[in-house]
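User: Predict the complex.
Assistant: Input components as received:
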Amino acid sequence: MGFPHKPHPKETVVLSQYFGDVEARSYKGWTKRGGYEALTQALKTDPLAVTETVKESGLRGRGGAGFPTGLKWSFMPKEKKKPHYLCVNADESEPGTFKDREIMRWTPHALLEGTAIAAHAIRAEVAYIYIRGEFTEPWTIMATALEEANAAGVFGSIKVYLHRGAGAYICGEETAMMNSIEGKRGNPRIKPPFPAAAGLFGLPTTINNVETLAAVPHILKRGAAWYKGLCLSNPKSTGTKLFSVCGNVQRPGNYEVTMGYPLKSLIYDMCGGPPAGRTLKACIPGGSSVPILTREETEATLLDYEGVVEKGSMLGSGGVIVFDDSADMVYQIMRLARFYAHESCAQCTQCREGTAWTTKIMERILAGQGKTKDLDLLLDLSENMTGKTICVLSDSCAAPIVSGIKKFRGEFEAYLAGKRQPVMVS
Amino acid sequence: MADGMITLTIDGAPVSVPAGTLVIEAAKQAGVLVPHYCYHPGLPVAGVCRMCLVEIEKAPKLAIACATTVTEGMVVKTQTAPAKDARKGVLELLLINHPLDCPICDQAGECELQDFVFQEGQAGSRYTEFAKRFNPVEDFGPDVLYVPNRCILCTRCVRYMEDVAQEPVLNVSERGDRAFIGVHPDARLDHPWAGNVVDLCPVGSLLSKDFLHKARAWELDKTASICTGCSQGCSITLDTRDEVVVRVRPRTNLEVNRYFICDHGRMHYRWMNRGDRIEAPLVRSGGELKATDWDEAFEKVLSILRGASGKAVALVSPGASNEALAAAKQLLSGFQWTGAFQVVMGEEAPLPGVPNLALRAERAPNAKGAENLGYTRDYQQALEAAKGAAVVLVLDDPDCSVETNGALIYLGTVLGADAPCRRADVVLPIANVAEEEGTFTNRDGREQRFFQAKPAPGMAQPAAWVLEQMAKAKATARVGGGS
């Protein structure tokens, strides 16, 4: 549901069923709505069987990479020799994404239930929920919910802790998050070793996104077949997905649709399209880190992992940023570059220096002082920043630059040729 | 294929290395130096500079050689276009905020950034018309300055302080291109082994105040030596310029000090350049010490030995070489011999990250060697014995408070105006450790060679040579020795 709007008839409401329903926040209200039934049932089930069910459902990670969740769980050591950990990635900081925030705000127990089920499935004693520092309201709600759940003793022997971030985008990267939980600087780690082998405190760890885990109780309750059936296009992408739509649309908000739903319908039917008198120009379909789509591509895109890739972008976190014809793409891309330059952890040379240089060039172009060679330079720099660093922050900065120059070259050239009023950026 | 050995190909050359070896180390075995900054064999792998990107067949993208473990049949290519372009890209990025102040930078000439840019980089920069990042120089500790503008954030210093010195006072502060190396606000970089960060720094960002603007790297002559600061026996390099020792740096020795030396050892060199040296043999004549030549001095010593019998005492420095100590003992053969040395003691300061490595409380490089040759630590008793001895030989111990009724032979580098040895019958000028070749035996019994870094002043000669000459002459003439 695009809270505070009424749910659109074309939405498939699973995770967002109780968005806006204040009563569902409390333990009592949640159990009244069937909450914690799945957990109670799961705790009596063999962990491997739970993993198997999730595998069958086809659930894939909703944090951005789309890795099959059940498969990820099955990477944990078969023979348990050391303590296992579960980390829940609630450090939702991707520009344009605000789905996890709503899950935590309205249905904190859904996340706690999913967390406990996942912890059981991977045989973890301890689960950490790493909540973004700026999420003050979700934090309070989650803390209250955790207190209630602990008082009710629903987790069995599993311990769940909330850990608050300090406001770093990079801590949403799973290995940086583990460092942050350990009390270290939030720098991504080199892989291998992968978290399932040596993760948090050097022990086997699984990291899952909030939305992923919130879906797990539903899968256990209604069955893998039901979840698998929620599919409009490619059978590899199943279930529902929350899309956070923002930018130039009439009704921005979170919308939950079945995988494979057309992006065009999401933007026009559900969100009411661009404001009156304006037309769609471009769209970033999966949070700021993914390539930009043109209007034509946007209108032809089906929202599942494969569908968006087919159009040259990625489903990512499901943060849909819509631009209408009033948007200055050069300015928008500069804003993105500036964000990445600000958030780079400073480990890898390409990212530390590259993101900042990219931003400077973008600012120069906007200020009307761009050089004719700047576009080639940006592309070359982006090439140098792609696929060469520890994590993908550098790639994320390059993606909108490359796609932006490719698809909106005219706008860049207008600045370079002095045909556009320079924008003062500081 | 031997057990546990992995065979791979690097730039077409097959190489076999133990399982678990990193590609960057395997490449060294194959004679290929993959350019790198953050990697250092003595530190945990960080994989952050991204300079050592190489192509590995069948890998989806370029891999960093410093964090990739070898596998059987791996094919590594360091010189392909994608690998070279990637490294060129890193170099360009490292240089955009790096001041080109090589002419006034101490690191110039031994700078890895200079070297690899020269080898793989490009001539010009595309980072035009933007200001470079600027931060003022910071005083990190007793001997370390931080020049943030030159820093390439390889984090070697941070990892060294955290994992090797285990006193994590450094960190990476801030993020993105604003990042710099920070020192804890309530701490100083004053760990007894902190100076190593200067050597570890691949650029001129961490500088030694002691060496600041003292010499250009290419003017230095380098000589393999052994540190005389304590009984650990760390391998060092003496850097000399115009026959003056200007710097001491660690020399890799995996058995003793790995890649490090302590600050005490690093600063323990100024005495090697002392100007108030004894430059000629002195022989007592008419109640005064008079300069003479070696022949006459030898003659004098021999005549003393010839005319004496009974007890002989050798008071020696535990900083004398094994060769000198042995020759000193040989020279006095035939006497009732007592040999002793005294060791200056200090505070022990271990380097926690390296087993069995510390600045030892015993501040003497060759105490063990002296002991092996029969010299004892009972210095007081030897001083007592000296009073009634026929011959007393003092070797390189200028402050020795010797009293004797017998003949006194002093071999030393210096002789103070009020030194008890002023009353010696013969004073023989000898070379110091930087001016001779020899061996020391460290506390673990490891015998290690040091080489001559500069000439000895005036007529001074290595103590071993002086003593051996006399011992030979004495043996030929069959003189002395009471019995």
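DSSP finds eleven helices and 24 strands in chain B.
Let me know if you want any component modeled separately.
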